[in-house]
Design brief:
There is one protein chain. The protein has helices at 31-38, 41-50, 56-69, 77-87, 92-102, 110-123, 127-134, 164-174, 181-196, 202-212, 217-227, 229-242, 260-271; strands at residues 9-14, 17-26, 29-30. With 272 residues, it is mainly α. A hairpin with a 2-residue loop joins strand 2 (17-26) and strand 3 (29-30). The chain is globular, with a radius of gyration of 22 Å.
Length: 272
């Protein structure tokens, strides 16, 4: 008889139905009898990936990172891909797959986070190693399906300066006293930016946070893909409602749509 091998999940079958579960345990924790009642979504997510419950500091850090990554905004290429699917009438799954495909690469995507996390493993908090490594131009590896990135991982190749959201996220996450990478990055951001002549990007902050949380580069890459999907989903749904006549094919400016509340206010003024 074939069996499914997993360290993550354990099930006990119902006595009268071998295909239905009586109980489910994730890394030893009773999911529906314990975690559902006592754990948060972020704590459960950490448990799934790491195989152990997070400390309070780890849970707060992962929750902060998840909030920072949840919606990259419609300027982001992955979100824009989902919007294209939405306005074109694609299915929900197709919109999310478009976002995953575009957001998987080594330029602001999950693969960039993977590479940056490998850099943390190799360089730690040694400023000299970082400065030396950032000066080396990446080269293609014939054995790798990914082309060599055109810029150092974790930095913005098109940026003029480090943006306010990146700085705010780094400041908040580094204050949580969970690991050393974020605090070190906060302290040494300017020397690193001088070495690479590029500003720090959100992918660089995410890589440091995921490293502090103890995730492997492969786990960090997967989490980065997962945590950015909420924004892609809501923007795809919104664009589907707007229709193609309001789709931003050329304009890059954002127009804040106040939504139904503004229509109600206008009607009330007309009545008055």
């Amino acid at each position: 008889m074939e069996t499914i091998r997993t360290r993550i999940w354990q099930e006990e079958a119902e006595p009268d139905n071998a295909f239905a579960a009586l109980s489910c345990h994730c890394h030893g924790y009773d999911v529906y009898g314990d975690l559902l009642i006592n754990a948060s979504w972020i704590e459960y997510l950490f448990l799934l990936f790491r195989g152990e419950a997070p400390s309070p500091q780890q849970a707060r850090l992962l929750e902060g990172l998840a909030m920072a990554l949840a919606n990259p905004g419609p300027r982001d290429a992955a979100v824009h891909a989902a919007m294209c699917g939405g306005v074109g009438g694609s299915t929900s799954a197709s919109c999310l797959m478009a976002a995953l495909a575009v957001g998987a690469g080594a330029s602001g995507g999950a693969r960039e986070v993977f590479i940056a996390m490998e850099d943390w493993l190799a360089r730690g908090t040694d400023l000299t190693l970082w400065q030396t490594g950032l000066a080396v131009k990446p080269i293609d590896d014939p054995a790798d399906v990914w082309p060599a990135p055109g810029h150092p991982a974790g930095f913005d190749p098109h940026g003029v300066r480090c943006t306010a959201p990146v700085l705010q996220t780094l400041t908040h996450l580094s204050s949580m006293d969970c690991g050393t990478s974020l605090a070190w990055l906060q302290l040494n951001r300017l020397p690193l930016e001088s070495a690479t002549r590029l500003p720090l990007a959100m992918s660089g902050v995410a890589a440091a946070a995921l490293h502090d949380l103890g995730f492997t580069p492969a786990q960090g890459e997967m989490l980065h893909l997962l945590l950015r999907l909420p924004g892609a989903a809501v923007h795809a749904l919104e664009q589907k409602d707007y229709g193609y006549k309001k789709f931003p094919f050329f304009s890059v400016e954002l127009e804040n749509d106040p939504g139904p509340a503004q229509d109600i206010l206008a009607h009330a003024e007309d009545v008055a």
